[in-house]
Amino acid sequence: MFRYILVLLLLLLVSSYDVYSHEESGPWSCETGSEIHVESEFQPGVITLDGHADDWKDIDGSHFSLLLALDPDAENEFNGGKMTVKSVHDGRDIFFLLQVDGDYAYSNGESKKCPSVALMFQIGDGASYHNMGGCEEHSTSCTNKTCKGHEVDIMHFSIGNAIPGRLYGGNPTDNRDGNGGDRFGHLVDLYAWNPHCRYLDGTGPSGSVNDSSAQNDWKGAWWHSSFTVHSGFVKDENPYAEKWKKRAHIFLNSLGL
Known about the structure:
metal-binding, 257 residues, transport, 13 strands, globular, 5-stranded antiparallel sheet, 1 helix, 32% strand
């Protein structure tokens, strides 16, 4: 069986309040350790991107504590539950399941008051997990020249308007415009050099030449374990609530290899 190890940079963003630019009070470092290795096995024809975790029951996963971005001390970890990450591939696409237990505030349609999740991958040789690539340039001076080597690739899925069980991400409308956006469900394809310099694929800082051939290469769906019906909802059915019981948010995503 063909296997390979993916060294992933995983970032979970769960909030019920406004999110501001990343600012730190002092020095901080992050050393890469074995705990961030996720194994992706060859399992063709197993996974369906519908948000349900049933297909993944026989696939081993890794479990991660959720730490605050600005104070990543173990004593301040999220105590509602851990994040489970699983991955398989079929030779064409690679699939990820991210499952998070715990209580979450949720406001339908408000992207800053709902669960969000992101996967971040090192692209540039000098890119770091900490500081989202680690380029020291300001937002007014970061370019593909001044931040060369600090590139990271990011998938970000915010479920503010996304209907459970429906497929989001790359679509003909946004891909036709040559960028990594998703106007329907906010599952977007980004790149960054640092937290202040993040852009949709195909776009860039002022004065840069945009890549008209860029597109969103990700697809994904989400679900919640409190839902008892395994078919996709429509907006009028409104399964949302201000706060769910302690169950699990489930995110399924895929990327073409």
